[in-house]
Design brief:
mainly alpha
Length: 232
Amino acid sequence: MEDNAPYLPRSDPSVERAIGRFIIAWGALEREIDQAIHDLMLTGLSTGALVTANMAIRAKLDLAHALFEKMRTEEDDPIWRPVSADWEARFDRLVNDTARANAEARNPIVHSQPMVLKLESGDRPFFVRMVARKGGLRGTGVSYNKAFLDQQTAEVVRLVQEWANARRHWRTAISAMRSSDADEWLGRSPDEEDHLTLQLQSTRDSPKATPKQPRQRKPSRRAKREARESQK
């Protein structure tokens, strides 16, 4: 190879396949995060994708965490925020673990640049990622092997399953909140026979839920004006 020729590491099929498996697993992870955001926004793919399509992973995690806060259990009205205390802490860990995997695995694997260390025993390829932030320039280098990459992929697969578990946990709550909003939009009160709001109960002996009260709508300017004129 000429001295001025661009460097490309020699092909290593086992490492390249391992990198490919990691990238595929990460794509599945981002799909689950996107769909979780769509759930928490109480919307579907066509509208939700307008929000998530161009977002970086860190922004997606921040948004998912903020939306999840709306579903945390409230002591005075637990039926309308039916997320278990266990899942409140579990979701916090899930977001933190995903952010760590992004910083420590995904970014280095995807964005590192191949370099070569020339030794008497031969060329040794390694990958370097440079970061320029406050405090100066920093770089990290690593030599990838199949075992290391498989370990990172296994962690991403675990995160995929955990995001799917989170979505299954809050699925009933999401349905109840959608129905409650539909009642409100249609002007139906909880005591009407055809209201849509679901009754969420874990067992037959559970205490009956207190219906969500409709919002009190403020009178319009026109209504206020007509009321004043009628009093004259």
